[in-house]
Amino acid sequence: MFVITISFLAFVAILIGGLVALKLKDKFHLVLGFSAGAVLGVAFFDLIPEAFEIGSEFFDIHTIALFIAIGFVGYLLLDRLVFFHSHQHSAHNTPNIEDAPLHAVHGNSPHPKRGILGASSLILHTFFDGMAIGLAFQVSVEIGIIVSVGIIIHGFSDGLNTVGIILKNQGSRKTAIKFLALDAVAPVLGAFSTLFFTIPEQNLGIMLAVFGGFFLYIGASDLIPESHHAHPKFLTTAMTIVGMAVIFIAISIAHA
Predict the structure, then answer these.
(1) How confident is the model at residue 103 (pLDDT cuts 50, 70, 90)?
(2) Engineering a disulfide at 18: which of 23, 104, 163, 170 sits with its beta carbon 3.0 to 4.6 angstroms away?
(3) Domains of the chain by residue range
(4) CA-to-CA dists, residue 92 to 48, 82, 86, 104, 252, angstroms
């Protein structure tokens, strides 16, 4: 039950991050800028390195890179195919194409379902974070604590990112709170699940690689363009860098 207690700290961190995002809605472009950096930071400094470290015992580097690309392209196709008609609708219903928002002209208009898709990926990620806590404690208490510290620290940005991607895609405050709650509960459920089974390291490496591709797409193709649209570029760019730096520092501390 110690594992469940530790995962509850991640629950608290995620809730705090999400509530901060809701509180700062009037500065939402800055929240999105930070979220973009945090999501990319998780991909670059956490998911992808872990995928190579774990997966390299079973696969060559090119195979792991292939699964990162599969994750990226798979999310791209899902995004484009599922929301193709809504994107067309947004652009075609604009009276003057010159007056259309940039994201509408280029077929990347915000849509609540896009927010749900992105937030669901984040929830799956935090679920696997919880599993990582449980699996790490199965190896040793020391490894479990190291992994837990990193997950708890970047849990704050997970909550912020979940709320950010819902609100960015025209989702309601109620929807954002609902997905924040699911995101907060996910690591507790993930940790609890490891009391009953374990995931082979071979599969874990591939899963991390695919999620790395997911997060690269969400950050680079969705959050960064929207955070910079019609807002001061310097501040949003600075917040994106800050978001990446926070994740880098959190992960560095966890592995120190």
Answers:
(1) very low
(2) 163
(3) 2-91+116-254
(4) 39, 18, 10, 9, 47
